[in-house]
C-alpha cells in the first residue's frame, strides 16, 4: 500500500496573499482537513489546516488577514510512492503529496493513515488467528499469572473446552496444568512430555512441548503445543488392519458397477475387476500383465488414458466412442511421483438414454408451461380484469384457487375497489359457473323487507303480497352463488336468521311452514371493520366466524398505483367506443392521477374518465380540465425526484433548479408568482436564473 492509494487526489492550493476567509471556504467546500500554500513557482511553502483556522479564531476572517499569517511552514510533504507508515511518526495532521515531477497531486490525512494501518494490523492479527486455528496441533499460551491468552481450535478438540470459555480463565480451571505453570517459575523448556487423556470414546495420547515466552529478556508467559500421537501408539494394531483393508479393497473393487483397471506408471495392468470384463467383453485374466496399448490394439479404447494422465499430472476424463466415460486418476508415492494409475470406466448407454428422456421431459414441461401461460392469459381477458401490479396478480391467483373449493369467502376492501368483480371471478371459475350469480346489496334493502326479499314469502303472507308468493334470493341462487355485498350493514336482528340459513342450508319463507333446502355458495363483502363491530355489539360474533372462513383483501387503488394508468386507458377506450369520440390525455394528467389518493378507488376513476371524455371540448385532456377536489391533497405531498444516472452533484443541483424554476414560470406566468409557489424571494429566482444562464442552462 502506497500513499497514492489512500490520498485525496487534488490540485487545489492556496496563495500566501489569499484571504483566510477564502481558504476556509475552499477547505469546507472540498471537505478536506487542510490545503497546501504554493508560491508563484508552484513550490509548496506552507500548509493551512481547518484546525489552524479554528484556533486563530474569528478575527482571522477580516480582509487584512492572509493565508501567510496563519500557515504552517516548513511543511512535511509526502511522495506518491512513499509508505503511509512514514507519515504516522510525523507531527502534522495533513501532508501535501507530490508526484515524480515534484508537483502537488493530492493530500494525505493522518486520520486516514491511522485507519488504514489499523485495518492492516487487524488483518494481520486475523490471519495469524486463522493460521493457528488451521493447524492440527493444539496450542495454549498463558501469561505470567497463568491466565490463558491463546487457545486454538485444535486445543478445543483436545480439552473439550470452547475458546470463549477458556480464554481469560486460569489454566487450572480449563485443564490439569501438567507442568506448564512450572515453566513460568524456572524458565526451562520441557520437550516431548507425554499426556494421556481419557474420553468417552477411548484414550488419546498427546506429545506436548512446554516453552517459555520471552520479551526483552523477561519471561512474559509460556506456551504448550499438543500433538496427537495416538496412531503411533497403536501402530501394531494398524498393521493388522492394513491386511483387512486390502481384503475389503478387493471386495470394493469387485463390487463396483463401473469397470476398474489399476496400472503402474508404465501402463502395465496390475488389476482389472469383473465389471470391466462385463463392459468390454475381454476377460480380466487375459489383460492381467498386459500394457494398456494392448487394449488400444484391440480397439477397445481409441486413446491411451494412461499417457494422458502422465502428461497432465492430474485426473483426466475422456469420452470413448460416445458410450464410455473413462477417468484416469494418478496415485503418487511419498516423493510425489506417480506410481499407480486408477482407471474408471463407466458405460454411458443407460445415462444417454436417461439424458434423452430428460430432454424430452423438459421439452414437454416447457410446452405445458407455455400452454398454461396462454390459458392464464385467456382467463384474465375473460374476466375483464385490468391490472399491472404484482399485488393484484397474486390476488387473482388466490381468487382462482379459492374458486376450486366450495368454501365461504369474505371479500374485504374499500368502496369501489372491485369486490364484486372478484366475486364474479370466483363464481365464473368454480363448479357453479353454470348456475346463477345473485348479488344482494344488504344496505339497500329496508329492514322490514329483508326477510321477505332474502327468504321469499308464501301466497297471502301479508297485505299486498304477490298472489303466487315469491322466491327469495337464496332460492334464486340455488345451485349457484349468492353474493352478499355490504353485509356489515345488516341489522343485528336479521343476522341470527341469516346465520341459521347458512348453517342449515334451508330457508323458511315468510308465512310458510315447511323449510325449503337450498344449495348455495356464500360470498360476502364489506368495506367496514367487522371485527371492531363484533366488539361493539353491532355484528354477531357467530355470524362473523361463519362468513370469515377465508378472508380476501382487495387493495385500494392508491396501494397499487401501477394499475392507475392501464385502467385510465381502458376506461378511455370504453367511452370512446360508447360515445364515438376520440381524446388524447396529457402526460401531466397521469402525474396528477398518481399523486391523487382516490377515496372512491376504481369506481371513482371510471366516473372521472367518463366525465372528462364527455365534458372536455378540446382534443386533449389537460390538468386544467380536472375537477378541483383532485388537487386538494396534492399540496401536502412531496413531489418525487427520479435519479436515472450518475452525474456531478453540482450539475445535478443546477439541473433540478432549472427544471423547477422553468416549470413554475410556465405554470404561474411570471417570476413573481413562481417565487411565491417555490416559497422563495423574487430576487432569489432572478439571481438563480442569471447563474444558470452563465453555465449555459436556459430557462
TrEMBL record:
CDD domains linked: AAA (cd00009), CBS_pair_SF (cd02205), PAS (cd00130)
CBS domain ranges (all copies): 7-64
Top-rank taxon: Bacteria
Domain PAS, first and last residues per copy: 245-297
Residue ranges of domain Sigma-54 factor interaction in the record: 385-614
Gene3D superfamilies: 1.10.8.60, CBS-domain (3.10.580.10), Homeodomain-like (1.10.10.60), P-loop containing nucleotide triphosphate hydrolases (3.40.50.300), PAS domain (3.30.450.20)
Single biological process term from Gene Ontology: regulation of DNA-templated transcription
Keywords: Aromatic hydrocarbons catabolism, ATP-binding, CBS domain, Coiled coil, DNA-binding, Nucleotide-binding, Transcription, Transcription regulation
One MF annotation (Gene Ontology) recorded for this entry: DNA binding
Keyword Amino-acid biosynthesis tagged: no
PAC domain: residues covered: 299-360
Residue stretches in coiled coil: 351-385
Transcription among keywords: yes
Name of the protein in its database record: HTH-type transcriptional regulatory protein TyrR
Amino acid at each position: 500500500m502506497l500513499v497514492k492509494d489512500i490520498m485525496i487526489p487534488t490540485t487545489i492550493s492556496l496563495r500566501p496573499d489569499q484571504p483566510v476567509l477564502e481558504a476556509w471556504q475552499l477547505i469546507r467546500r472540498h471537505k478536506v482537513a487542510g490545503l497546501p500554500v504554493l508560491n508563484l513557482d508552484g513550490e509548496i511553502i506552507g500548509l493551512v489546516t481547518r484546525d489552524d483556522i479554528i484556533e486563530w479564531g474569528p478575527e482571522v476572517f477580516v480582509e487584512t488577514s492572509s493565508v501567510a499569517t496563519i500557515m504552517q511552514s516548513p511543511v512535511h510533504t509526502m511522495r506518491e510512492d512513499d509508505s503511509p507508515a512514514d507519515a504516522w511518526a510525523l507531527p502534522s495532521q495533513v501532508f501535501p503529496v507530490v508526484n515524480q515531477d515534484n508537483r502537488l497531486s493530492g493530500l494525505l490525512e493522518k486520520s486516514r493513515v491511522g485507519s488504514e494501518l489499523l485495518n492492516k494490523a487487524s488483518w494481520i492479527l486475523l490471519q495469524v488467528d486463522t493460521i493457528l486455528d488451521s493447524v492440527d496441533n493444539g496450542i495454549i499460551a498463558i501469561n505470567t499469572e497463568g491466565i490463558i491468552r491463546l487457545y486454538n481450535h485444535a486445543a478445543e478438540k483436545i480439552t473439550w473446552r470452547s475458546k470463549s470459555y477458556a480464554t481469560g480463565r486460569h489454566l487450572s480451571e480449563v485443564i490439569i496444568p501438567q507442568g506448564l505453570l512450572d515453566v513460568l517459575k524456572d524458565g526451562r523448556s520441557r520437550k516431548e512430555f507425554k499426556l494421556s487423556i481419557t474420553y468417552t470414546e477411548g484414550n488419546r495420547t498427546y506429545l506436548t512441548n512446554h516453552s517459555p515466552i520471552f520479551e526483552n529478556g523477561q519471561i512474559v508467559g509460556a506456551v504448550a503445543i499438543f500433538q496427537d500421537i495416538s496412531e503411533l501408539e497403536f501402530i501394531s494394531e494398524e498393521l493388522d488392519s492394513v491386511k483387512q483393508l486390502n481384503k475389503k479393497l478387493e471386495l470394493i473393487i469387485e463390487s463396483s458397477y463401473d469397470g476398474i483397471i489399476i496400472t503402474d506408471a508404465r501402463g502395465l495392468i496390475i488389476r482389472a475387476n469383473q465389471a470391466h470384463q462385463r463392459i468390454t467383453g475381454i476377460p480380466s485374466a487375459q489383460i492381467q500383465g498386459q500394457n494398456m496399448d494392448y487394449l488400444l490394439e484391440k480397439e477397445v479404447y481409441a486413446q491411451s488414458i494412461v499417457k494422458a494422465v502422465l502428461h497432465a499430472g492430474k485426473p483426466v476424463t475422456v469420452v470413448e466412442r460416445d458410450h464410455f466415460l473413462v477417468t484416469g486418476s494418478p496415485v503418487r508415492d511419498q516423493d510425489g511421483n506417480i506410481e499407480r494409475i486408477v482407471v474408471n470406466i463407466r458405460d454411458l448407454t443407460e445415462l444417454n438414454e436417461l439424458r434423452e428422456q430428460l430432454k424430452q421431459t423438459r421439452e414437454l414441461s416447457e410446452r405445458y408451461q407455455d400452454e398454461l401461460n396462454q390459458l392464464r392469459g385467456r382467463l384474465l381477458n375473460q374476466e375483464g380484469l385490468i391490472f399491472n401490479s404484482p399485488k393484484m396478480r397474486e390476488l387473482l391467483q388466490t381468487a382462482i384457487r379459492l374458486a376450486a373449493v366450495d368454501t365461504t369467502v369474505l371479500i374485504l376492501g374499500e368502496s369501489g375497489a372491485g369486490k364484486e368483480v372478484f366475486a364474479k371471478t370466483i363464481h365464473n371459475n368454480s363448479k357453479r359457473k353454470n348456475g346463477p350469480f345473485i348479488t344482494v346489496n344488504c344496505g339497500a334493502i329496508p329492514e322490514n323487507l329483508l326477510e321477505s326479499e332474502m327468504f321469499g314469502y308464501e301466497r297471502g303472507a301479508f297485505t299486498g303480497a304477490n298472489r303466487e308468493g315469491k322466491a327469495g334470493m337464496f332460492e334464486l341462487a340455488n345451485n349457484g352463488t349468492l353474493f352478499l355485498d355490504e353485509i356489515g350493514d345488516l341489522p343485528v336482528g336479521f343476522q341470527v336468521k341469516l346465520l341459521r340459513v347458512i348453517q342449515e342450508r334451508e330457508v323458511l319463507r315468510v308465512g310458510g311452514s315447511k323449510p325449503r333446502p337450498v344449495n348455495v355458495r356464500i360470498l360476502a363483502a364489506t368495506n367496514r371493520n367487522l371485527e371492531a363491530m363484533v366488539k361493539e355489539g353491532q355484528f354477531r360474533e357467530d355470524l362473523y366466524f361463519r362468513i370469515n372462513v377465508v378472508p380476501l383483501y382487495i387493495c385500494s387503488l392508491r396501494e397499487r398505483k401501477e394499475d392507475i394508468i392501464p385502467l385510465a386507458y381502458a376506461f378511455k377506450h370504453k367511452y370512446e367506443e360508447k360515445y364515438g369520440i376520440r381524446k388524447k390525455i396529457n402526460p401531466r394528467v397521469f402525474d396528477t392521477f398518481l399523486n391523487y389518493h382516490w377515496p372512491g378507488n376504481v369506481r371513482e376513476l371510471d366516473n372521472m374518465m367518463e366525465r372528462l371524455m364527455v365534458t372536455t371540448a378540446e382534443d386533449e385532456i389537460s390538468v386544467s380540465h380536472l375537477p378541483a377536489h383532485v388537487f386538494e391533497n396534492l399540496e401536502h405531498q412531496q413531489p418525487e425526484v427520479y435519479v436515472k444516472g450518475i452525474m456531478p452533484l453540482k450539475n445535478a443541483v443546477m439541473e433540478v433548479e432549472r427544471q423547477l424554476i422553468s416549470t413554475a414560470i410556465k405554470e404561474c406566468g411570471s417570476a413573481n408568482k413562481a417565487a411565491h409557489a417555490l416559497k422563495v424571494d423574487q430576487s432569489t429566482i432572478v439571481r438563480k436564473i442569471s447563474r444558470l444562464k452563465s453555465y449555459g442552462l436556459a430557462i
